[in-house]
């Protein structure tokens, strides 16, 4: 029999999921000789056998992959046959080759599989109640990884050598933990510790101790206390979601006065009691990344707290929103143990401030919170990568990602028609934007978008971003000369921390290499580029989209954010914009919707007498606290080119409307005002029967009530909202309810998309497809109305499916638009 030997190098999701054991079993079944090992970028296989055997083996690596595996690139090379004696031949799993400090291709963390959960609740199993149980199909991955390839000695489990029983599982080919890198047990693995104030720590090193810990946890929760728990990606707070005092206590500890909390529930059945979940949302809740799913809230009777097990409902302070609620299922074994004895939901939220990364340092957490909480539940497995819980929105047009994080970051995306991208020749890094700072790396294998770290203006976020990107620069330089990063891409905004850091890193270059070219991409072009990348739209295809967000640099003293643009290849064309209005003191208005309202009123020439006759904005907003001299100064600022910026931002426009309606004058978190406006509009839609579960027949009528006007202004179409503003004030004056007005505003925005597109000539209107991106299109009601109105007009609306429409995906779009 004629023998051949092939070397196969596979890139993709092939580490940390039992891929090498699968290859071993396949090669052994086919009677092949050789080996498989991890490499920094994937897996290398050498197989020797007959031509027919090799062909069958290669076919299986394409169409019979194990669960969670994905092959992004496969290279097969014929090499000389191994002439060793036949009795020395076998198929082996060999030690990994090389080392890479960059983790752009790391496997995200995986929620517990059903087999591990069954073992954990089986009294006859040696891992009964072991809260760190895992196997080849589940457990920590990226959060504990220090370098690539993914081997135990390159993770924080290196200091936990396997006991005899675990080692036997690890080396037994028929065992499901064969070569599982994260396994352990009570005898050899990390352990959890329960600590209450002024008491000795309780080490959970056997099932009885875990049961005692569960009882203590339940008692502390029932007493209305807050518990601090170490999660997969960092520390999180827990409390009883039906206990008003407990939730208030949590808000005080976290210093989070208004932003809604999400619920942790033990089962899908429990989640369905609190939210109306679509079929897609139910599947998503149970996916390996276990996201928070924000869905329609089911109304329940509210009243004084009844404690755990009460049927009264959630504490009012869980969320001020009537129509939406975030729910999630357990994402790690400990959460399954803690929720197994509870019928009512827990609040689960990160222990960090909103601008900083998740807290992962044990001593820092103890110093900050030890005397504020009723108990701390932690383990001695170090976390390397801090990761927030991912979030998706459940809408009638499908699931829309809101945040990547634990379980789905890093996220790999392919570039359609890569041949025209400079990434084919040399890799590049993009720095993203400041809010939700997330960087990305792109090369011939695609683009890897990393997790959002927080606000880049926070020192710890900036430091982590700098370390991560510098590590990637140095790691690429260590591979080969043609693997050096060729470009660093930043936002156009010169004041962004990420822009300045990108310039700094480009000058510094790598340890042993020259400086790196630095280039900038306009913010809203990058937004649309991210959507095009998400949807797999080819580089050479003309792609049209509305980009609505809060802010983005358009030039000196000019903020964009209500844009109609097109991209083709690496070029961006601005076709339309919201009529700009001046923001007093610039984008400080982002935190002060009342200032946006002042700018909008001033631009429309609406006097304060008319405002007072229509609403109580002048009496209840911070405007009322100003002296007459201060008011004159603000009016002057609102018309001054020197002390204000022109803004075409739909986010700021919505802020202004929200303030005039008396809903939010000062924002306490990003998106506060538009989210409140959406909630009131959704409540009204449900009440009149025009919500997404029934029909949208009233939209047309309400869109006629409020209508933006579209007119040509030079090279751009200008979307003028002054008429809508006048109708809002008129309806307030006539006693129309806030919910009705909010709904009409949403309908008007949906209609303006159709009206603006109706003005476009060929070639812009040929495809009849339009993308909707930017943070404003996280609004579930708006995307549903927009999809309906566009469909009626013969347009297909395209939404994000894998990466968010907000700034956390900007880096991916920057790489998509990177030119030669």
Could you describe the 3D structure shown?
A hairpin with a 2-residue loop joins strand 25 (553-555) and strand 26. Helix content is 32%, strand content 20%. The protein is α/β, with parallel strands linked by helices and 820 residues long. The longest helix has 21 residues, at 459-479.
- State the CATH topology of the largest domain: Nucleotidyltransferase, domain 5
Q: Main sheet, how many strands, which sense, barrel?
A: 12 strands, mixed
Indicate how many domains the architecture comprises.
4
Distance between the termini: 51 Å
The count of helical stretches stands at: 24
Strand content: 15-25%
Average pLDDT, all residues: 92
If classified by CATH, what would the architecture of the largest domain be?
2-Layer Sandwich
Helix/strand class: alpha/beta
Large-scale geometry: globular
What would CATH call the homologous superfamily of the largest domain?
ATPase, nucleotide binding domain
In percent, how helical is the residue content? Answer: 25-40%
CATH class of the largest domain: Alpha Beta
**Uncertain ranges:** 301-311, 692-697
Radius of gyration, whole Å: 28 Å
What is the strand tally?
Answer: 34
């Amino acid at each position: 029999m004629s023998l051949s030997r092939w070397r196969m190098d596979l890139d993709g999701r092939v580490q940390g999921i039992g891929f090498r054991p699968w290859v071993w079993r396949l090669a052994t079944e086919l009677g092949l000789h050789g080996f498989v090992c991890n490499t920094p970028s994937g897996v290398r296989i050498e197989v020797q056998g007959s031509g027919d055997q090799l062909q069958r083996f290669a076919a299986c690596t394409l169409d019979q992959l194990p669960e969670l595996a994905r092959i992004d690139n496969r290279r097969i090379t014929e090499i000389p046959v191994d002439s060793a004696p036949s009795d020395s031949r076998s198929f082996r799993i060999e030690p990994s080759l090389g080392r890479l400090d960059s983790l752009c291709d790391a496997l995200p963390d995986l929620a517990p599989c059903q087999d591990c959960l069954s073992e954990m609740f089986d009294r006859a199993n040696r891992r009964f109640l072991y809260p760190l149980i895992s196997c080849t199909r589940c457990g920590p991955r990226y959060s504990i990884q220090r370098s690539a390839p993914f081997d135990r000695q390159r993770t924080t489990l290196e200091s936990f050598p396997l006991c005899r029983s675990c080692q036997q599982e690890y080396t037994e080919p028929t065992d499901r933990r064969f070569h599982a890198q994260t396994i352990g047990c009570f005898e050899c693995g990390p352990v959890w510790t329960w600590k209450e104030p002024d008491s000795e720590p309780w080490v959970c090193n056997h099932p009885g101790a875990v049961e005692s810990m569960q009882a203590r946890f339940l008692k502390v929760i029932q007493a209305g206390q807050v518990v601090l728990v170490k999660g997969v990606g960092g520390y999180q707070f827990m409390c009883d979601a039906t206990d008003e005092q407990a939730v208030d206590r949590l808000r005080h500890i976290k210093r989070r006065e208004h932003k809604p909390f999400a619920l942790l529930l033990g089962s899908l059945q429990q989640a369905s009691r609190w939210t109306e979940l679509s079929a897609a949302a139910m599947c998503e809740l149970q996916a390996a990344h276990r996201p928070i799913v924000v869905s329609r809230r089911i109304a329940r009777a509210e009243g004084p707290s009844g404690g755990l097990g009460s049927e009264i409902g959630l504490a009012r302070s869980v969320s001020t929103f009537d129509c939406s609620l975030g729910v999630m299922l357990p994402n790690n074994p400990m959460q399954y143990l803690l929720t197994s004895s509870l019928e009512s939901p827990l609040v689960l939220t990160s222990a960090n401030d909103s601008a900083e990364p998740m807290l992962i340092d044990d001593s820092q957490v103890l110093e900050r919170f030890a005397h504020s909480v009723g108990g701390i539940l932690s383990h001695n497995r170090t976390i390397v990568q801090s990761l927030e819980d991912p979030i998706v929105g459940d809408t009638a047009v499908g699931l829309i990602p809101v945040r990547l994080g634990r379980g789905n970051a890093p996220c790999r995306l392919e570039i359609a028609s890569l041949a025209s991208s400079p990434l084919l020749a040399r890799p590049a890094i993009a720095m993203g934007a400041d809010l939700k700072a997330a960087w990305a790396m792109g090369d011939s294998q695609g683009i890897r978008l990393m997790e959002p770290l927080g606000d880049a203006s926070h020192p710890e976020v900036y430091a982590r971003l700098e370390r991560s990107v510098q590590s990637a620069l140095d790691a690429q330089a260590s591979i080969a000369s043609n693997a050096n990063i060729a470009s660093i891409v930043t936002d156009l905004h010169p004041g962004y921390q990420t822009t300045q850091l990108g310039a700094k890193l480009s000058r510094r270059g790598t340890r042993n290499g020259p400086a790196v070219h630095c280039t900038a991409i306009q913010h809203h072009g990058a937004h649309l580029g991210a959507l095009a990348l998400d949807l797999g739209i080819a580089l050479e295809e003309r792609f049209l989209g509305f980009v609505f967000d809060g802010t983005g640099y358009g030039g000196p003293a000019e903020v964009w954010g209500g844009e109609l643009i097109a991209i083709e290849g690496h070029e961006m064309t601005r076709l339309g914009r919201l009529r700009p209005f001046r923001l007093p003191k610039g984008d400080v208005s982002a935190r002060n919707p009342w200032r946006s309202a002042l700018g909008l009123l001033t631009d429309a020439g609406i006097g304060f007498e008319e405002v007072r006759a229509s609403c109580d904005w002048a009496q209840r907003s911070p405007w009322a606290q100003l002296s007459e001299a201060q008011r004159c100064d603000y009016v002057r600022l609102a018309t001054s080119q020197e002390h204000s910026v022109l803004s075409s931002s739909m986010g700021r426009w919505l802020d202004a409307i929200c303030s005039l309606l008396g809903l939010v004058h000062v924002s306490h978190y990003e998106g506060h005002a538009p989210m409140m406006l959406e909630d009131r509009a959704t409540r009204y839609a449900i009440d009149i029967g025009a919500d997404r579960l029934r029909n949208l027949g009233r939209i047309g009528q309400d869109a006629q009530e409020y209508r933006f006007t579209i007119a040509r202004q030079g090279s751009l179409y200008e979307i003028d909202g002054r008429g809508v503003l006048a109708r809002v004030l008129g309806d307030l004056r006539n006693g129309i309810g806030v919910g009705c007005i909010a709904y009409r505003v949403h309908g008007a925005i949906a209609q303006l998309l159709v009206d603006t597109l109706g003005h476009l000539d060929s070639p812009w209107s040929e495809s009849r497809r339009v993308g909707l991106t930017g943070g404003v299109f996280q609004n579930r009601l708006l995307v549903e109305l927009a999809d309906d109105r566009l469909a009626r007009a013969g347009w297909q609306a395209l939404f994000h499916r894998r990466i968010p429409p907000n700034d956390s995906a900007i880096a991916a779009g920057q790489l998509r638009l990177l030119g030669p």
